[in-house]
Amino acid sequence: MRFDIVTIFPGMVAEAAKTGVVGRAIERGLVTVKAHDLRDFTTDRHRVVDDVPYGGGPGMVLKPEPLFRALDAIAAESGRKPLVLLTSPQGTRLTQAVVERLSREPQLVLLCGRYEGVDERVRSRVDEEISIGDYVLSGGELAALVVVDAVARLVPDVVGDEESVAHDSFSRGLLDFPHYTRPAEMSAGGEEQATLKVPDVLMSGHHAEIRRWRKREALLRR
Ligand code: SAH
Question: Is 20 a residue whose pLDDT tops 90?
Fold first, then answer.
């Protein structure tokens, strides 16, 4: 699976993508993440990507032509028409169902807005707008990275244990069950010196009961 991210901060995106599960997926060749510097698609000496809004008002707007050129270059490079997503607080809210749908695409292009956003005409080249929640970020980079992270972990073999993905919250219409690791007992700290214990059933070795307990706990978390 391939992700192309168009941004004025390619370093931020490239650096974040090197970490953890996504970083390992890139190293193993399962996923490609390419950050494209929007300034590379400008034609003026000062590599200007933004301009003042028509009609007046505060802030700057990302100019359309560099974004159009970036999309042309990405499509030419891949030889197909990839799905183009615009990060935007006005978009479809990202849910696990949306993530699953996106994970079936061979290639996603993510456009990162900045300032007041992008020139409205960019939307003519966008298949879908994606929001990561009802709040306003200063740029689309973090949103694009959220999409890459959530989608990449559904690409086959990216997460080592397939079963772990299948049990994750939202995948089965349930939240995940509680997880514990060693030690079996520990002090809660503070004045009371309470002991925090791992539920006995998990150490019982009784797999059917463990399964039942996990199901019950997941249901209680709804
Ligand atoms: N003026 C715009 C917000 C611009 S914020 C509005 O009110 O709709 C600047 C950029 O950050 C946006 O173009 C978008 O790319 C990104 N962004 C901000 N909030 C976001 C969110 N909740 N989800 C996805 N992207 C977001």
Answer: yes
